[in-house]
Amino acid sequence: GAVVSQHPSWVICKSGTSVKIECRSLDFQATTMFWYRQFPKQSLMLMATSNEGSKATYEQGVEKDKFLINHASLTLSTLTVTSAHPEDSSFYICRTLAGLYNEQFFGPGTRLTVL
Amino acid sequence: KNEVEQSPQNLTAQEGEFITINCSYSVGISALHWLQQHPGGGIVSLFMLSSGKKKHGRLIATINIQEKHSSLHITASHPRDSAVYICAVIPNTGNQFYFGTGTSLTVIP
Question: Distance between CA atoms of A83 and A35, rounded to whole angstroms?
Fold first, then answer.
């Protein structure tokens, strides 16, 4: 079946650095990618929706200059957390759709810890 | 107000017990998903429902569109079923998900 991978699975970085998270569809083309953030014990919060070849659509309250999303190919979408701060520490997950019935596939997630 | 409400929030069961998790939603939907999130964080889609009932192994999911309610049942629960179960709906208006807050299930041997 379709698989979505994320890299890295976890990352620890210093405050002020930038971190890039990759989300890849391994055996299908992902036209649309959704990026979520999940804080401990909370539900997933949609950050942005990206479509291949076009600018991402960000949810209200999400800074597009801080969370840069690139969806340059049908198999790769990236989320870059720029100038990361401790409050950006979270679990970041991507989701995409595939197939005739829009089956949902989630990436395994990336746990970001900013010191 | 959350469009999707789940109950219970936390559930502890003995191995072998029959488990039910409930989900109510307030919007018109095109589909409802039950998701499983293990402690490591990865999410797996268990079921996608738009009507009726689906069964996969020991898991059964039902939905009542008129009542805007769905249930996830686990028969003969096992410690490996311990996870957070999340109900998510796709509204008629698009591909966005509305997520419930999840039910944390712990099955004790």
Answer: 18
